[in-house]
Amino acid sequence: MKPAIVAIVFAAASICQAEPFTVTVNPTADTFVREAEPASNYGLAGSLAVSGHNAYSYASPTQQMGRFDSFMRFAAAPVVQALDTNFGSHYWVVTKITLNLTEVTQPNNSIFNLGPGTFDVIWTANDSWLEGTGMPSAPSAEGLRYQDMASLIDPQADKSLGIFSNVGGGTGTPAIVCPLLLRTELAADVRSGSDITLHLAPADEEIGFTFNSRNISGGRPKPGLQVTADSIPGDANLDCTVNILDLIFIRQRLNQDVSTGDNRQADVNADGRLNILDLIAVRNLLNTKCQ
Ligand SMILES: [Ca+2]
Ligand SMILES: [Ca+2]
Ligand SMILES: [Ca+2]
Known about the structure:
Type 1 dockerin domain, five-stranded antiparallel beta sheet, four-stranded antiparallel beta sheet, 6 helices
């Protein structure tokens, strides 16, 4: 091997190992709906809630306030922007997503239930719903209501991202952290900068979980979708591993315009060209993985 090539190979192999990077976004819309008032919207409430039929009002140990579901919509576009800035355009892969919620132990309206239990976080295919402007003290007929839920959810298309518990919350802080299953649909929404709707549904009849919404006042913590991504030099096809598939990915794009389609991913040594140096760079990084 000629000395000039050796020098270039060394440079390509010495690209810094990227560190994981985390971005947190708050909902762009959120609301709860309740079975007891199926035609009412509460989109401006400072709390969201998920409750089963057997939960009791926080204000009375004998009063049951019925089922509550909550919906949150997050925009992934600012996540993509932050990850692109950190890693380079789409040169990253999502490795972890958590939903962080803060329980309200003293709700300001007696419609809210309180009590430990479990809830399901469901990725919802349909993002077309209105937050509305209702409050517990002044519900609205505009915006998402319990009676609209059947047409919003789709048991075939929607996907559970895990069952979680509010046990261990109860003080208002710290947050209840829900590590979501990284399903294809969820990861694809992040990748494309799309909207993400999460539906929180009771997983048992006892849960009475009331938590801060995005409309909570006083600087208190809002719901957060925390996205962690990682990138590794040489991972041209963005599957978190450097292997033969990356060599194939690059070979299929040799000498093409780096700005076309997903070609930029193949420019693993970031010199603006797709050539043998990218193949050499990958060869020198074979068998590395995301952290
Ligand atoms: Ca809201
Ligand atoms: Ca790869
Ligand atoms: Ca290159």
